[in-house]
Structure formats: structure tokens, C-alpha cells
Amino acid sequence: MANTTARITVNGEETPISPAAPHTTTLDFLRDRGLTGTKEGCAEGECGACSVLVARPGVNKPTDWVAVNACLVPVAALDGQEIVTAEGLATAGEPGMPPALHPVQQEMAVRGGSQCGYCTPGFVCSMAAEYYRPDRCAHADAGDGTDAGHGDAEHGPNGFDLHALSGNLCRCTGYRPIRDAAFAVGEPADEDPLAQRRERPAPEPAVTEYAQDGSSFLRPGTLAETLELLRARPDAVVVAGSTDWGVEVNIRARRADCVIAIDRLPELRELRVESGHIEIGAAVTLTEIERRLDGEVPLLAELFPQFASRLIRNSATLGGNLGTGSPIGDSPPVLLALEASVVLAGADGEREVPLAEYFTGYRQSVRRPGELIRAVRIPLPLSPVTAFHKIAKRRFDDISSVAVAFALDVEDGVVRKARIGLGGVAATPIRALATEAALEGEAWTAETVEAAARVLRGEGTPMDDHRASSLYRSAMLGQSLLKLYAQTTEAVSS
Ligand SMILES: Cc1cc2nc3c(=O)[nH]c(=O)nc-3n(C[C@H](O)[C@H](O)[C@H](O)COP(=O)(O)OP(=O)(O)OC[C@H]3O[C@@H](n4cnc5c(N)ncnc54)[C@H](O)[C@@H]3O)c2cc1C
Ligand code: FES
Ligand code: FES
Questions:
Q1: How far apart are CA 356 and CA 368, in angstroms?
Q2: Contact of 77 with 217, CB cutoff 8 Å
């Protein structure tokens, strides 16, 4: 299979992807073409030096400018798409004059947001994505001293959400001038070309058949075609947001003869709130879920800010988080507490499996070869008392040592139902069944909770590893329930 049609639009200019190898990252592709503003710091999604903007279907406008880690996304995955790099943010100046700085570049320059400059192009791309977020200004403070907007340390008076920069690291400037720059940007001007671009639809997903030197990157147009392809190519690697796969390619030098992209399949991109359940397509990104649900599932709303960075969440999917089968993924404990099920689609049809029965061993599941996770279903109504406690070395952008999710029904002071999901304490994510039994039917009192916390400390088979000792993990389980109790009683007494 030869391919000459795969193309990407970079800073307004369409360019063929060929002859890049199918595993080539967008970062390497850009740098090979001289766009060296996009930097490589870590090549594993941790530093944001490689951040670029991609035009994606918008939540509140036809198009959103979304910042992603170019080091993780294969360039072939962007066939037919439009991206903007730090070079493309500046607008052409008068003939013979240098381009005019973009407003976020200007603020970074005048507020001392850049010293060595290595991280700066990545910061300005992440900052530009937040600058163009359509509802950012709606969250701005009233400007009358009433602080009617956010008034919290993580949002500027201009509505700028600092979490937009949570995936960007700077080694030398210090973050205060960068935050000052972020909090100083105004509203995009009417004639701003990237602001205007939001009013037109984002590029449709291309059907891609890209091959070079014996390996291929394929993007089928429908779920049925994908399942047929998987039957024909059982060796293929399926990718969605590529935030796990990209690390495998860059750091562990993994290569696949055939990669099949599923992140734009319409059947995996639906999010529906129905009377009995909420169905979330496996390929809806975490950012989209966060924005489209807008707090409707409080436990998910608590999970997302603790799940990686905004840059990662802009690509990462629930299908990918469950698809890895990792015992320390953050969504499984939450989805277990919510009693979610997984809708699996195969060439012979669909089946629904409760998540509690999905994992069968370390990185193993009941998913058969050739099956895909199409969606996750969360039953309604939701239990009212919920919490997600992620114990990690850093507050944001870190892997869990232990993760605990609670969903409790407490009526008239009695625990009617308890569902507790745990991560990081066994070969698979698990339900804390003994603790659930110790709580159900009991009064929601300090005595019950202390007794149940002792049971919770004994759940699973936590290990010693470089993240935490088994003793620490067990202790954190118990503390987590005590913390939940303290939070609920504080809420009642305040
Ligand atoms: C810097 C960094 C920070 C991270 N932080 C966190 C964190 O805080 N918490 C956390 O849980 N994870 C974290 N991750 C891991 C990763 O972001 C998540 O696991 C993410 O949800 C993966 O989604 P994806 O769409 O990018 O998966 P991909 O990389 O595209 O795929 C991952 C695996 O899932 C399979 N897969 C994807 N979609 C499906 C599907 N629909 N059906 C069947 N199989 C499928 C793929 O075949 C592949 O094996 C982090 C990763 C990075 C690089
Ligand atoms: S190079 Fe560090 S996140 Fe991409
Ligand atoms: S300015 Fe040097 S790393 Fe940020």
C-alpha cells in the first residue's frame, strides 16, 4: 500500500505526511520540517514543551482549539486535521518587519515569563488554547470588585483556568510571572484569525490508509469496518488518544506493523444521558466528558482534575484507561464505585459486562481478541455521598500509589448502600466488598467508620514498590474512609 494522500495543515499550510514512518510523532514531524519551536523535553507527556494546538469539534462552538502533547500523537493520526504551532501564533507583520507577537506571547514577554525559553513555546500553546476557550470570558470576574467570577487561586480575573498549564513545566523562570501573563490576557479580537476559525466546523476525521516501509497506520470510517479490520489483522495495535501508546513508542521503542486509530469513530464518540443511565463513548476525551457533563456526575467531576494534566486529558479516553488494564488507572476505582458496566463490541455483536467482572488478572480482562470497548454505562440514580481520594507523590500530574472511590447512600443516618472502588492494592482494580458489607445497614457514626476502616486496611494484597510500601498503602485505605467521614460530618455541621 503506497500513500500520497495523507496530509496535515500546519499553520495554515497543507503538507504531505509522507515520507514519515507511521510511528513518527507529530513532534518529530514538525521539527524535521524546520518548525523547531516545538521542543522535546521528556517525550513522555510530562513536560508540555511539545504542546501544539489542534482544531477539534467544539463543545460550545463548532471548533475548539485544543492543546495536545505532540510527542505522543502520531502525525498519521492527524491526517486531514489542522494544527497550529508557536510559530503560527504570531501574525505576519508589515513587509520587511518581523511578525507581530500573539497576545499570549506578548504577555509572556513583557511579564518576564521566559528566561532560557525552552519551555516557552509549549507554554504559549497551552495558554493560547485557554485564551480561545469560548466560555473562559463568561467566567471572568465582574470587574466591579465584587469578585463575581471565580475568586479562587486557580482562576484569574479574566477567567483563565490555571489547570490549562498543569502539563507544562518550567525549570528556570518560576511560575509566578507565567501565571501573571496568563491572568493578564484579554479577549481575542474580532479579527483574530484563530478566534474566527472557531466559528466554522472542525475538519472531519479522514479515512486514513497510510503505509511506509511495511508498516501502516489505518483509520477506518465506521465501527463495523474497524471490527472487520481487526478480524483480518489480529496483530494490529488499537489506539485512541495515544497517551499510553505514545509513551510505549518513545520510551520503550515499541513498534507495530499495523496501528488502527479509533478515536474519531462516531459510534465511540457519543455521550448520552438517558432515564436509567449515562452512556459515555469510549473515545470521548476526558476533557470533553468533563465539559459536557459539567458536574452532573460529582464523582467524575472530582476525578478529572486529579487525572494527569489538561494536555493529557485533551487526548486521553476512558476506553484507553480501561483498555490498558492497569491496576493503577484512576478511572476504574471511580467507575467501580459508580457500578458502571462496559459495552464491548465485536464482529458478532455487543455485550454488556459489569466493570466488577471485567478485570480477570494483571492487565487482563474478559475482552476477547477483536473486541473493542464501545462505551461505559453508569446507572442512575447516583448515590449522593461520593469522594475520590488519590494518594500520589505530587498533587497533580502523577500516577496513584493508591486510589479510593466511595459512593454511599446514607438515609436517616444509616448506610443503605456502600460501593467502594480501589486501585493500586491488587493485580487489578477491585471492589472493597468486605468494607461495603461492614458499612451497609449500620449507623453512619464514628464507631462504624472506625471499625470499617480497620476492615478496609485489610482489603486487597498491596505490594511494596518504588511508589509506596504495602504498609503505607494499607494505612492510606483506612485513612481514606476516616477522611470521607470527616468531610461528610463537616458538611452536615457547617
Ligand atoms: C504524563 C502522563 C500522565 C498520566 N497520568 C495518568 C493519571 O493520572 N491517571 C491515569 O489513570 N492514567 C494516567 N496516564 C495514562 C493514560 O493517559 C490513560 O491511561 C489514558 O486514559 C489512556 O487513554 P488513551 O485514549 O490515550 O489510550 P491509548 O494510549 O490510545 O491506548 C491505551 C491502550 O488501550 C487500548 N484501547 C484504547 N481504546 C480502546 C477501546 N475503546 N477498546 C479497547 N481497547 C482500547 C489500546 O489498544 C492500548 O492498549 C498518564 C499518561 C501520561 C503520559
Ligand atoms: S516532550 Fe515533554 S510532554 Fe512532550
Ligand atoms: S524558561 Fe527555561 S525552562 Fe522555562
A1: 17
A2: yes
Taking CA 288 as the corner, what is the angle to CA 285 and CA 289, rounded to the nearest 5 degrees? 90
CB within 6 Å of ligand 2 — which residues?
40-43, 45-50, 69, 71
The pTM for the full model equals: 0.95
**403 C-alpha to ligand 2 centroid (Å):** 26
Q: How many residues does the chain have?
A: 494
User: Which ligand has the shortest distance to the CA of 174?
Assistant: 3
Q: Read off φ and ψ for residue 423, nearest 5 degrees.
A: -125, 150
CA distance 198 to 194: 7
Reading the block at residue 375, the C-alpha cell is: 462505551
Task: State pLDDT tens for residues 343-367.
Answer: 999 999 999 999 999 999 999 999 9
Q: What is the pLDDT of residues 27-50, one digit of tens each?
A: 999 999 999 999 999 999 999 999
Model confidence over 376-427: pLDDT tens digits? 999 999 999 999 999 988 777 788 889 999 999 999 999 999 999 999 999 9
Nearest CA to ligand 3 atom 2: 116
Is 165 a pocket residue for ligand 3 (Cβ < 6 Å)? no
Residue type at 274? Answer: E
DSSP 225-242: HHHHHHHH-TTPEEESS-
Ligand 3 pocket, residue 118 CB under 6 Å: yes
Contact 239, 245 (CB under 8 A): yes
State yes or no: cis peptide before 381, omega within 30 of 0: yes
Neighbouring-strand partners of residue 406: 387, 420
Q: How far apart are CA 356 and CA 350, in angstroms?
A: 18
263 vs 239: CA distance, rounded Å: 7
